[in-house]
Write the structure tokens for this entry.
Amino acid sequence: MELVAGYPYWLIKTGLPYQYPKLLKNENCQAVIIGGGISGALTAYHCTMAGIKCILVDARSIGLGSTCASTSLLQYELDIPLHQLKKLVGNRNAVRSYQLCGQAVDKLIALMDQLKFGEYSKRQSLFFSLHSKEKKMLTQECIARKEAGFDVQLLTREELETNYGLKAEYGLLSQKGAANNAYLLTHELLQHSISRGLKVFDRTRLKTIDNRNNKMILRTENDCTLTCDSVINSSGYEVTNFIGKKIVDLDCTYAIISESMTKNNEMQENGIMMWSTDNPYMYLCPTNDSRIIIGGRDESFVNMKTMHTYLEKKSILLEKDFKKCFPSVSFKKEFAWSGVFGKTKDALPYIGKYPETSRVFYALGFGGNGITFSLIAAEIIADLILGKKNKDAEIFSFRR
């Protein structure tokens, strides 16, 4: 499946920082990880650190799926507000999901520091509304998040304009968040894991996966085999190739980025990441190199043409959305891109075993905060492979 259209900024900025071989001979290991994006890289890191002998394979060059098209925001907020999520999955699971994502942000920051990865910055985040009628909704969300232990405050129209130059009615300000280069982080995680024994093969497309004599046998298109005890599927939105059941709705999401500009406005000076309550929504974030990324305007994914056909139109609409909120900020687009994005009905990822594919674990971080979900999935799956009980696994299981 084609997952990206246009010119993703992180790929243009970073290029191909490392080269990986194609699988050309048979290999054996404890676990094969399918997928070389940020989900696969985090899973490989945690499994390798846990002493699990792993091999990672990807049909593309590493990171050239959805990861290079990510806007790379690290946030604890799910696609569904906490007070509404409680009605879908229950109070405990909703609160715990938010808390796990909050912890994941902190753990990712600590991990990037450990790797001496410099392309990230801590950020505040702002969930804002252009409509006065949504004060009640944001107030309820503020209360729910405070009760869950998050540092948040409700801001008025005057505070939003004074502090950020934002033309909006209300905003919910959070202190926890970060922005990074997820594409480069993927490579750095893999390089660290390779130094600990991980093997990585890209441009290696799988043809068949069989369960034979208590072993998993994966055969590539050039007839090499990988023999392992377990398979970890981190293929993201291409999971439909492995699971017949529909577990995710696919959308195309669109993004644009400005030329580098002088920091002469409140939003850039504060470095805050924001997203709106609107449908279609908009999210945005200043970068460390004085640009602004704007994304959103999702469109239901019909086929590959959806990404290409609407890209220019969506780029124009996103720029108009931005101008409505920040009329005093000059924005000149330099690059635009689109990518496949998936949403589940309850905004939670799928992590663990699927009943019909024994010996296969899934790390599927669907949603707007897929990177934090990927960290959670990596921790849970490493525990499950080692036979350890993980108290949070059931929240994200296929049985829910």
